[in-house]
């Protein structure tokens, strides 16, 4: 009986841990093997329990493993309670646990207790089922797109700013066309497929799609599936450099969006280094402060002035892509000026939460050097104490965070570091008063103790607790 309980306990603890981490990293084993932020957790919840089980199996002393299992359950529960991204019991996760239970039962009936075989079979079976499901839903979504012969698809990709461009473009076009956009930050092939199958109305005229990537051919896969008529490639930077290794690899991956069989027109940022004219060349006279943004766009020899309450000079570049696309679609320039003036901040992107009693700005989804540094320069003009809450920049090299620290030192008075992932390098290069949170759950308490009325508080970027 102790042998059976040990076998089931091993499968449960490793299975739960693996499916949780896979969900965090889009079910890519390569990412949890080579890009996991806390590799010691793999030792705690995979290596340690398995070695403990083998020792118990060898000496036929399963109480040793059960004590190990009890310890890991207590410690794992403690860590899990602090996580801000807990396991979501999707249909896929439920299917995995069904497979794990069935294979564990099968191996028990065969009296076969080597440990990880049931787990391996459960994952293989689960991934096979998901692959078959994916093929079915991809074909269903493709047929739905082809049935709507009037549908125009705008594909948007960039190292950063693509979600903002998508949302701004939707707001600008929605009064003239029946539009639909991918929700939130959905930007993977399967996320897009799900949106098409569940949300895209057959009468939609323009479908605005955000495309993201973690490796070469990710954008190509989406492009070949959608075959968009229009494409916007925003600024190319060092986001996800950890995966791509070089900026040139990032650039080539983003340019995969041009390989559509139906491409009619594209709008490119100058950082793409492509052969054509760039939409940011039509942009000039940018003025940004804590009250809003003003800039000019030049079309056919005429200059037009745009005003918006949006914060950040980088939003002028995002908007210039949207305005260029809308102008090509023959939206009247007066309507464009009015639409831009009415735009609201995208959630968590330089969104003003309050001005009194504390000036609070939520820029939690801004995770690149250019956008973060510009938001810091914006805060520098504030006449009062300035507090920064940030984990730094993730998935980039150390140089990017060192450069960021220099700007932080010039623009703020106090810094709260919210993640361990960059804490060592931030502590080393930030000369201001600062504090590192061991747990983000402490943040509200620290803010209450460390800030006062009339302080400016900028929430810059965000990183989950597992980083």
Describe this structure in words.
The chain is of the alpha/beta class. Helix content is 49%, strand content 15%. It has 17 helices and 14 strands. It has helices at 2-24, 29-34, 40-59, 62-82, 91-109, 117-147, 162-173, 189-199, 218-226, 241-244, 247-254, 314-328, 333-341, 369-380, 398-411, 423-429, 443-450, and strands at 152-157, 179-181, 206-210, 230-233, 265-268, 283-289, 292-299, 302-308, 351-354, 359-363, 386-390, 414-417, 433-436, 456-460. The strands form 3 sheets. A 6-stranded mixed β-sheet has the order 9-10-14-11-12-13, with helices on one face. Strands 2-3-1-4-5 form a 5-stranded parallel β-sheet, with helices on both faces. Strand 11 (386-390), helix 15 and strand 12 form a beta-alpha-beta unit. Helix 1 runs antiparallel to helix 3 (40-59) and helix 5 packs antiparallel against helix 6 (117-147). The longest helix has 31 residues, at 117-147. The protein is globular.
């Amino acid at each position: 009986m102790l042998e059976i309980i040990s076998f089931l306990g091993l499968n449960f603890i490793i299975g739960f841990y693996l499916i949780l981490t896979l969900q965090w990293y889009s079910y890519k084993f390569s990412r949890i093997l080579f890009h996991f932020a806390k590799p010691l957790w793999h030792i705690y919840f995979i290596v340690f329990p398995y070695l403990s089980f083998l020792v118990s199996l060898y000496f036929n002393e399963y109480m040793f493993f059960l004590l190990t299992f009890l310890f890991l359950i207590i410690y794992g529960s403690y860590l899990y309670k602090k996580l801000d991204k807990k396991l979501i019991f999707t249909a896929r996760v439920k299917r995995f646990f069904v497979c794990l239970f069935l294979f564990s039962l099968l191996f028990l009936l065969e009296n076969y207790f080597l440990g990880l075989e049931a787990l391996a079979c459960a994952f293989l079976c689960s991934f096979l089922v998901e692959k078959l499901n994916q093929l079915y839903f991809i074909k269903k979504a493709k047929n739905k797109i082809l049935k709507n012969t009037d549908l125009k698809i705008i594909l948007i990709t960039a190292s950063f700013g693509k979600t903002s461009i998508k949302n701004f473009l939707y707001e600008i076009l929605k009064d003239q066309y029946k539009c639909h956009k991918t929700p939130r930050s959905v930007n993977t092939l399967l996320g897009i497929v799900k949106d098409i199958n569940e949300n895209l109305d057959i009468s939609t005229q323009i479908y605005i799609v955000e495309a993201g990537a973690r490796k070469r051919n990710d954008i190509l896969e989406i492009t070949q599936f959608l075959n968009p008529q229009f494409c916007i490639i925003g600024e190319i930077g060092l986001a996800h450099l950890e995966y791509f290794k070089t900026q040139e690899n990032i650039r080539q991956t983003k340019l995969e969006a041009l390989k559509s069989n139906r491409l009619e027109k594209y709008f490119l940022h100058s950082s793409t280094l492509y052969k054509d004219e760039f939409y940011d060349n039509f942009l000039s006279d940018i003025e940004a402060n804590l009250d809003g943004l003003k800039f000019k766009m030049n079309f056919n020899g005429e200059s037009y002035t745009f005003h918006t309450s949006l914060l950040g000079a980088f939003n002028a570049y995002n908007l210039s892509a949207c305005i260029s696309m809308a102008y090509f679609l023959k939206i009247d320039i007066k309507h464009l000026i009015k639409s831009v003036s009415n735009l609201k901040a995208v959630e968590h992107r330089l969104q003003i939460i309050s001005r009194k009693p504390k000036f609070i700005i939520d820029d939690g989804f801004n995770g690149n050097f250019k956008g973060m540094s510009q938001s810091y320069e914006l805060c520098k003009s504030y006449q009062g104490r300035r507090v920064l809450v940030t984990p730094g920049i993730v998935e980039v090299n150390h140089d990017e965070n060192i450069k960021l620290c220099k700007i932080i030192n010039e623009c703020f008075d106090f810094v709260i570091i919210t993640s361990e992932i960059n804490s060592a390098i931030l502590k080393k290069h930030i000369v201001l008063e600062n504090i590192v949170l061991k747990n983000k759950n402490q943040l509200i308490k620290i803010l209450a103790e460390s800030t006062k009325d009339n302080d400016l508080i900028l929430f810059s970027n965000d990183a989950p607790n597992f980083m």
